[in-house]
Amino acid sequence: MSKLLFVCMGNICRSPAAEGVMKHDLEHAGLAGEVTVDSAGTLDYHVGKLPDSRMRAAAAQRGLNLGHRARQVTAQDLKDFDLVLVMDHDNLSEVMRLPGAHEREAKIKLFCEFCTEHDEKEVPDPYYGGAQGFQKVLDLLEDGCAEITRRLQDGTLLKKSEP
Predict the structure, then answer these.
(1) Nearest residue to 87 via CA among 2, 162, 12, 29
(2) b/e sequence 140-151, b meaning 16+ C-beta within 10 Å
(3) Average pLDDT, the chain
(4) What is the structure's pLDDT at 163?
(5) Catalytic one of 71, 125, 143, 145
(6) Is 77 noted as a catalytic residue in this protein?
């Protein structure tokens, strides 16, 4: 079974939305039982909380239910997950500070590397913006998750060479 982890700062906007989009895509592709999907944050500010209500509302408009409870990313996650997808360069820097990160660097990626319809290099944090920011995040997540699903289907996403 493949394991994917999405990471943002607080685990209440971008990464739980990515988790929801990915689970939705996997279900529709018939891969739900073959891939484990989770999300986490680099900071512990929101541990145990549901995703931001604005993100839940935006996701619900697209038929997604975000019920994840926030948690903080750990060094163990880097061992346990096959691919760790971070939302921006700040999150990447934080993840790379975890013990063992440099040994597992090949499986830690910026999420937008998988976007095919958008040119953004990072998924912007919508927390301090308006409703349009949450929609933009979901557009990017739908784009990248569709490509991740395609690569899972054709077997080109994960190479099992990590320790």
Answers:
(1) 12
(2) bbbbbbbbbbee
(3) 95
(4) 46
(5) 125
(6) no
Mean pLDDT of 72-100: 98
Q: Which of 8, 13, 112, 145 is catalytic?
A: 8
Q: How far is CA 155 from CA 29, 49, 132, 160, in A?
A: 14, 35, 35, 11
Instruction: Tell me whether residue 8 is one of the annotated catalytic residues.
Output: yes
* Residue-wise pLDDT tens digits, 1-17: 899 999 999 999 999 99
Q: Tell me the residue type at 95.
A: V
Per the annotation, the verdict on 54 as an active-site residue is: no
Per-residue pLDDT at 159 exceeds 80? no
Q: Which residue has the tokens 């998988």?
A: 114
Catalytic residue among 14, 56, 71, 104: 14
